[in-house]
Amino acid sequence: MRDCVYPGSFDPVTYGHKDIIRRAAGLFDTVHVGVLNNTQKRYMYDLPARLAMMERVCREFSNVKVCSSGGLLVDLMKKLGTNVIVRGLRSSADLDLEQQLAVVNAKLLPGVETIALLSRPETQYISSSVVKELIAYGADVSEYVPREITDMILRRVPL
pTM of this prediction? Predict the structure, then answer.
């Protein structure tokens, strides 16, 4: 059985994330979507809210499991018994960062492979950062976030 982990903070989940999940689900037996915290980020949604959003978005995929971890990605990978990371790339800036992370992850957990899926043109411009800015100003984000979570987005408590 071949499985992978698709990690991210998913604050909030976007159509770009969902596209990567869909595509990874077609390539792997099991996709573990790891909803994680990044100490460098300030979150609009707490971890339980992000997990709930991701659970809703992933319901349609029979081979996708949502999980979380309070530690490093490699710690989650050890727990899951997988050595493949799937990442989505929107730009050359994403590539530069992911190359650095791939090296660090491979040093922390020998044998880890990072596979990059290129964003499709229709989702390439979508980022959680832009979506959070739109939400903060009350703009319509239905074009950017999956319909499964729009009610959760609308209930967001202001910062």
Answer: 0.94
